[in-house]
Amino acid sequence: MATFLARIGGFSARHRWLVIIVWVGLLAAVGGAAAAWSRPMSSDFTIDGLTSITTLDRIDHDFGTDPGPGGKVVFAAPEGQTLTTADRATVAELSRRIAAVPGVAATPRLTLPDGGRVGFLSVTLTST
Fold first, then answer.
1. pLDDT tens digit string along 14-23?
2. What's the predicted TM-score (pTM) here?
3. In sequence order, which ranges of 1-128 are alpha helices (DSSP H)?
4. What's the pLDDT score for residue 5?
5. Cα angle 93, 97, 99; round to 5
6. Rounded to 5 degrees, what are φ and ψ at 70?
7. Cβ–Cβ contacts within 10 Å for residue 91, how many?
């Protein structure tokens, strides 16, 4: 092994410019290949079929997402029933009362996803 390494060292010393050119070319080829076949960095990570991911996807689908500070006031009719006209009037009054609270940006609107049993008010707060 020592003889082999001595021969490589001797060749490199005698043909230094050739060795430097080969190393620079090899480095350029590897860098070019890495750039050509690389994919952009991504922080997305999901595990298909995971119960918590499925639940979060369903919540996003049913209730959507709101930008900025705030939250949702969620209410529901008893199992097997839907929200009645009287329930909606109560929710409208609640919406007016929430809008009167200092720091609330706008009057919350009633949203009823599929079925009409569960509804929510999206409340957006001012950013102060």
1. 999 999 999 9
2. 0.45
3. 2-14, 16-37, 51-63, 85-99
4. 93
5. 115
6. 150, -160
7. 19
